[in-house]
């Protein structure tokens, strides 16, 4: 497709000049550009295709960057990027040095906030709206949040605070699964139309005044009339949950009808004060394969546009873990699996086969998941919470308060630890070791191959106590080691030693062989093992290489016991790039390890 409008328009300004036919043409171009780019670069497809018309309507009604648009998670912001001056660089999406797959203020003035995690958009928008109010700025803060993100408690904290704030905050609920309440035929369509009209607001406001003016005459009759007044109000003026929070409510609106979308958003803009607009959309809209299987095309690596076929994916740690946990669960009815809306991403889809009653999807609510696991543990169950490293960060307080202090036995299967690649800063699993190592009584494993992971899982369930964590990288095993739940020491009789764990052990072993030096591969990271410490101290220098933040790293912890440790870890945040590119950049590839150790030991 030739992008006649996308390539020529001065966006977003020229959007307001388009006629309805041109709007439709632009939406078609945007969809094609997203599909073509994601098929090559990978990324989030279904969510972006479902939000095309909605994003176009937002930019036609509001004036970015004066009006601030905050996309919850940000994985549906590709149209926003194309409409805000990033068309010419869109081909670099999710590439090293290219556009982020989420919103980034460093990328554009049209991105007011960093995004990547869910349920925080309402709170961010409220902070912006309050600042505008204090400054006398009458522009709007618009939070675009999906129904999935609405399952997170953070979203309701924001709603609770925002509803009575008197600010120009507009929350757009992008509902793409099912409505919060049933929408029945023409009645629902009528109410949707009615709510976008000024006359509806006048009628509702007038009805409130009439009802509240009913006089109370005292005594028992007073109580009866008071109760009647509440009953009449409930019947005449239906109150949604959002109205109970203090929001004016508009919707549901057809999220693919530009005329209706713009009418609803204009009404929201004119109302002033907190407004919530419910928009119903179809995930994957405009690409048949994604419409039929929106979950399969939520996040993709690559695919063939014509056939929809995706390259075969080799086994991964999470898939092998999920199958092993399900096998054990069939043998032990105490085992339960917990996921925060990511059953497939963390391997718990294996519970679909005969174990559905012991799989709990709690929604995007990691804090709740940990406390829920603690409750299960008090009743003798063996809860296993499978979660991405970057999302476990939300649960730090619950890990301490609800699990560690009472000493409850909860197992964490931590997926996507270390460098994860093109999703960038918000998804890198660099901080689980730093925060877990501060929690007393924590046991943590970082297996280097599948067989070792299975051993660790069995030990975590049946031998360890308290909080037990099993760390797994993104992707699959690349080398098979002799499995152990403690450590493995390959003694090559050298003065120097390489220390490693997890996926990094593959790079470290390759480098150790090239340098002909000893290699200590740790499987159990926490608590520190005295025997491993003795091996480290027995060498002139011990070099540790870690896919984690240098602040709070295992190397930092080891250094307090072993002064001969030389540490290589990651300082700061890792932007989008491939895993291989990041390992090389941060000195963690076999080649860089050889250069570092070889260079230090080279003859002067």
Structure described in brief:
The protein has about 600 residues and is an alpha/beta fold. The strands form 4 sheets. The chain has a 7-stranded mixed β-sheet with strand order 9-8-10-11-13-12-17, with helices on both faces. The chain has a 5-stranded parallel β-sheet with strand order 2-3-4-6-5, with helices on both faces. A 5-stranded mixed β-sheet has the order 14-16-15-18-19, with helices on both faces.
Characteristics of this structure?
single chain; Rossmann fold; alpha/beta; 604 residues
The CATH architecture of the largest domain:
3-Layer(aba) Sandwich
Number of helices: 23
Distance between the termini: 61 Å
The overall pLDDT, averaged over residues, is: 90
| Number of beta strands | 19
**Percent in strands:** 15-25%
Structural class: alpha/beta
Q: Give the full name of the CATH homologous superfamily of the largest domain.
A: Thiamin diphosphate (ThDP)-binding fold, Pyr/PP domains
Q: What is the CATH first-level class name of the largest domain?
A: Alpha Beta
The tally of domains stands at: 4
Task: Report the CATH topology name of the largest domain.
Answer: Rossmann fold
Widest sheet: strand ordering: 9-8-10-11-13-12-17
Give the uncertain stretches in residue-range form: 178-192, 194-200, 217-222, 224-237
Q: Helical residue percent?
A: 25-40%
